């Protein structure tokens, strides 16, 4: 039973939460933010040039890299933070009750740990970098209909990529989740 519930909440490859479970926590966090008027932060981290890595070392190596990066993320955040495999090589993290500034420091810590970590995959020594976007959100209206936080963080990630990758960008602007 426990195994079955793990299978539907976790991503099988990386053991991080899957997309669906992430959204469940995200909605819960928004509700909590509506009630307590506290801010939380969302980060999206993406492995740089992952396609090139896959093409160079093969998909099995790519999978091992995804597993190792996921584990590096998981052990370097708090148990109360929620990390998920959001897309192919994209990770999303929720930081409850944490400002964007603090969350950017955490993501920078993760970025640095990954950059300096040498992965040994099939006798190859590989170093990986990630880019990320971070912003804070707060709900002021319990009947929220608009949520631009994801788009906003995605844009920061896109900017981090276009400015040369291997960096985390964050915004001071708190995204109001409301109509
Ligand atoms: P710090 O590492 O400079 O972190 C500053 C603040 O950023 C923390 O304040 C916390 O609000 C936030 N923060 C840092 N890392 C995380 C994280 O992984 N997840 C979340 N949600 N928030 C994070 P806080 O809690 O008052 O901690 C103050 C200082 O105490 C930290 O400064 C750090 O030096 C130390 N500390 C607290 N917990 C830990 C821990 O589990 N491991 C380590 N190595 N140090 C810790
Ligand atoms: P945890 O809270 O689940 O945090 C897991 C890991 O995330 C920490 O491993 C650390 O690598 C990172 N981390 C979390 N919060 C912070 C932070 O504020 N600053 C920094 N620089 N890193 C952070 P670590 O350090 O081996 O700690 C393992 C566990 O020990 C933590 O699990 C927590 O339960 C406890 N712990 C360690 N230091 C503190 C502390 O200063 N205050 C409290 N309340 N608990 C601590």
Describe, in plain words, how this protein is organized in 3D.
With 179 residues, this protein is an alpha+beta fold. The chain has one domain (2-177): Reverse transcriptase/Diguanylate cyclase domain (Alpha-Beta Plaits, 2-Layer Sandwich). 45% of the residues lie in helices and 26% in strands. It has six helices and seven strands, in the order ααβααββαβββαβ. The protein has helices spanning 2-9, 19-36, 50-57, 59-75, 100-115, 149-162, and strands at residues 40-47, 82-85, 90-95, 118-121, 124-127, 130-139, 168-177. Strands 2-3-1-6-7 form a five-stranded mixed beta sheet, with helices on both faces. Helix 6 links the parallel strand 6 (130-139) and strand 7 (168-177). The termini are far apart. The structure holds ligand C2E (2 copies). One ligand C2E binds next to helix 5.
**CATH fourth-tier homologous superfamily:** Reverse transcriptase/Diguanylate cyclase domain
Beta strand %:
25-35%
Radius of gyration from CA coordinates: 16 Å
How helix-rich are the residues, as a percent range? 40-55%
Task: Enumerate the spans where pLDDT stays under 50 for 5 or more consecutive residues.
Answer: none
- For the termini, the CA-CA separation is 40 Å
Strand elements, count: 7
CATH class: Alpha Beta
């Amino acid at each position: 039973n426990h195994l079955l519930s793990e299978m539907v909440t976790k991503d099988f490859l990386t053991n991080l939460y899957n997309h669906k479970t992430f959204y469940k926590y995200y909605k819960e966090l928004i509700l909590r933010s509506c009630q307590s008027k506290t801010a939380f932060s969302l980060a999206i981290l993406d492995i740089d040039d992952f396609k090139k890595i896959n093409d160079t070392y093969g998909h099995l190596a790519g999978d091992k890299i995804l597993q190792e990066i996921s584990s590096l993320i998981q052990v370097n955040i708090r148990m109360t933070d929620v990390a998920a495999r959001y897309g192919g090589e994209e990770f999303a993290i929720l930081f409850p009750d944490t400002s964007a500034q603090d969350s950017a420091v955490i993501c920078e810590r993760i970025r640095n740990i990954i950059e300096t970590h040498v992965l040994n995959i099939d006798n190859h020594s590989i170093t990986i970098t990630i880019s990320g976007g971070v912003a804070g959100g707060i709900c002021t209206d319990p009947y929220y209909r608009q949520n631009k936080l994801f788009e906003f963080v995605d844009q920061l990630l896109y900017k981090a990529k276009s400015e040369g990758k291997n960096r985390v960008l964050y915004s001071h602007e708190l995204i109001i989740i409301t109509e």
